[in-house]
């Protein structure tokens, strides 16, 4: 057997696994979205656009898409600026604790989303940390509802997605060195100007990647909006979940998933355009 | 602002951000030692009662075993398949190699919610819904891109001169692989396996769709519990889960560093 053939044979088992667990499900999902509605008489039409028509005609689904994008944008606009200082700190720190601090910033990524969401339920809950503290200090006379809603979902998502942003920003800071900033400061630039003219532009590739990642992960998150939303946050993923598991309307779930995939794809294309322009401004 | 004040403000900001980042984990750890059904700071009474409750809870115990079993099998398969594919992708000199490399990483970009719906629709006619095999299969799929990437990273850094040297001294192809290439690759394979285990162990979205009463994973059991209650028992369980996850995290950090394992 030639080595060339052998190398191709080595790919085979992995390819089979990916076809079964990735290609087939996505293809089946697309197929399912063109099926007629569940309670229509069998053998009626092979292909139906019923599910898509339902999504496009119902104002509710337009609103759900808008909610999804809105929460994604708010989460991105909060997560990236909050992660930037940590990434800057980690890239410069010379402390012996640097390794530990870096691991601490990334490790939450590897603890279950369910557990971290639970943590936020405890913090923001009616009898939670914040309400009890504010009541104890006499700031409040009645507990406020912080949980069960968009606010709680956004807070939890920001925290859950920060490690992804930190890693992306760190990965994109190759050209940024302290010397450049010191040079600018020596030439008399005030601190904010150094930050806006040197630090941010040079970190831009990483910031862009982080924004993409956070947006894409937040619009496809299910556990957090489901648990923190308390049934009052309607985004594409929660709608897909209820259509699949409760309403058992698989064509509709398929159409909504396709919509989410399309949203995903368009954001990634936008990102690639922006990244290309960043690398080659001409 | 003078330099000292600036340093203090900067340190304060970083500390505050770290507190925010670690807040849910710290809070969960504190509640786990409390006996009352809600959080109050400082905990008035400390006890291990919640931990005893977890051990006695059959649902949690079985879910923990299920999750560990699924994680171990999925991670092993994923590392074996991933290592084979990495050899093909890194060492192979055939046309379309770049396309294959891209294909192997592409599931990383697919949203889990969409994969979950697709998997549910695919596994149902095969009778694999609500089974361990279905979950293992799904978890091999989502972890394979990570194992391929991490093992490929190690393989492309191996100096061909080492293998050449062994061959010149008369070692057979199999011996070179067993005594030179694989030992050098071991940290990466280990880290890949640990990442795969953690991804499988923490995965909740796909489990929500394809797991069920006959095959409940731990994240799913916790999810179902906290939908109705937020008592300290689940906090104790969470602490146990975090401690279990800590070991793989330390192994990864020691072998190839966490940032390189999960980063792009």
TrEMBL record, chain A:
Entry-linked InterPro entries: MetI-like, MetI-like_sf
Compartment(s) of residence: Cell membrane
GO cellular component: plasma membrane
Location of the ABC transmembrane type-1 domain: 65-271
Keywords associated with the record: Cell membrane, Membrane, Transmembrane, Transmembrane helix, Transport
Gene3D superfamilies in the cross-refs: MetI-like
Biological process terms in GO annotation: transmembrane transport
Similarity section: Belongs to the binding-protein-dependent transport system permease family. CysTW subfamily.
Protein name: Polyamine ABC transporter permease
Source organism of this protein record: Komagataeibacter nataicola
Organism phylogeny: Bacteria, Pseudomonadati, Pseudomonadota, Alphaproteobacteria, Acetobacterales
TrEMBL record, chain B:
Name of this protein: Spermidine/putrescine ABC transporter permease
One BP term from GO: transmembrane transport
GO terms for cellular component: plasma membrane
InterPro entries named in the record: MetI-like, MetI-like_sf
Record lineage: Bacteria, Pseudomonadati, Pseudomonadota, Alphaproteobacteria, Acetobacterales
Keyword field: Cell inner membrane, Cell membrane, Membrane, Transmembrane, Transmembrane helix, Transport
Predominant cellular place of this UniProt entry's protein: membrane
Residue ranges annotated for the ABC transmembrane type-1 domain, each copy included: 64-252
Gene3D superfamilies from the UniProt entry: MetI-like
Membrane-traversing stretches: 12-39, 59-87, 99-121, 127-148, 189-212, 232-252
Top-level taxon: Bacteria
Keyword Transmembrane set for record: yes
Compartments (UniProt record): Cell inner membrane; Cell membrane
UniProt similarity note: Belongs to the binding-protein-dependent transport system permease family.
């Amino acid at each position: 057997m030639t080595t060339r053939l052998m190398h191709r044979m080595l790919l085979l088992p992995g390819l089979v696994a990916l076809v079964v667990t990735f290609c087939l499900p996505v293809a089946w999902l697309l197929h399912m979205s063109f099926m007629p509605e569940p309670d229509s008489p069998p053998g009626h039409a092979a292909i139906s656009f019923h599910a898509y028509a339902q999504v496009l005609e119902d104002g509710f689904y337009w609103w759900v898409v808008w909610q999804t994008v809105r929460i994604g944008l708010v989460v991105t606009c909060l997560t990236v600026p909050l992660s930037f200082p940590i990434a800057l700190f980690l890239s410069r720190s010379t402390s012996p604790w640097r390794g530990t601090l870096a691991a601490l910033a990334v490790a939450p990524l590897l603890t279950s989303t369910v557990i971290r969401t639970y943590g936020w339920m405890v913090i923001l809950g009616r009898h939670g940390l914040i309400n009890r503290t504010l009541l104890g200090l006499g700031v409040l006379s009645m507990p406020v509802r912080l949980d069960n809603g968009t606010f709680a979902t956004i807070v939890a998502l920001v925290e859950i997605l920060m490690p992804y942003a930190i890693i992306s920003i760190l990965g994109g800071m190759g050209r940024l060195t302290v010397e450049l900033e010191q040079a600018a400061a020596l030439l008399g630039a005030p601190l904010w100007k150094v930050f806006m003219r040197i630090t941010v532009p040079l970190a831009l590739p990483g910031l862009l990647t982080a924004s993409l990642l956070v947006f894409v992960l937040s619009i496809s998150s299910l556990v957090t909006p489901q648990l923190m939303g308390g049934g009052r946050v309607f985004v594409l993923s929660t709608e897909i979940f209820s259509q699949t598991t409760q309403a058992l309307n698989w064509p509709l779930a398929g159409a909504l998933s396709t919509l989410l995939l399309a949203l995903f794809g368009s954001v990634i294309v936008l990102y690639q355009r922006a990244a290309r322009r960043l690398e080659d401004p001409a | 602002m003078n330099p000292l004040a600036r340093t203090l403000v900067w340190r304060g900001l970083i500390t505050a951000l770290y507190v925010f980042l670690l807040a849910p984990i710290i809070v969960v750890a504190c509640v786990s030692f409390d006996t009352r059904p809600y959080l109050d700071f400082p905990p008035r009474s400390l006890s291990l009662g919640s931990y005893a409750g977890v051990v006695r809870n059959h649902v949690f115990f079985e879910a923990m075993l299920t999750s560990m079993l699924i994680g171990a099998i999925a991670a092993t398969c994923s590392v074996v398949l991933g290592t084979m594919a990495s050899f093909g992708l890194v060492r192979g000199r055939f046309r379309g190699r770049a396309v294959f490399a891209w294909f192997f990483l592409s599931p990383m970009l697919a949203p889990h919610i969409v994969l979950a719906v697709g998997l549910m629709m695919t596994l149902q006619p095969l009778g694999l819904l609500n089974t361990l095999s279905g979950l293992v299969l799904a978890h091999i799929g989502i972890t394979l891109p990570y194992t391929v990437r991490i093992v490929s990273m190690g393989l492309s850094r191996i100096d061909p001169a080492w293998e050449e040297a062994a061959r010149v001294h008369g070692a057979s192809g199999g011996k070179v692989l067993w005594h030179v290439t694989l030992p050098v690759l071991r940290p990466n394979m280990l880290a890949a396996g640990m990442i795969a285990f953690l991804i499988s162990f923490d995965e909740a979205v796909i489990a929500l769709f394809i797991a069920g009463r006959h095959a409940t994973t731990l994240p799913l059991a916790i999810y179902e519990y906290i939908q109705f209650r937020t008592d300290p028992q689940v906090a104790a369980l969470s602490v146990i889960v975090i401690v279990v996850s800590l070991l793989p995290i330390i192994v990864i950090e020691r072998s190839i560093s966490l940032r390189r394992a999960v980063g792009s």
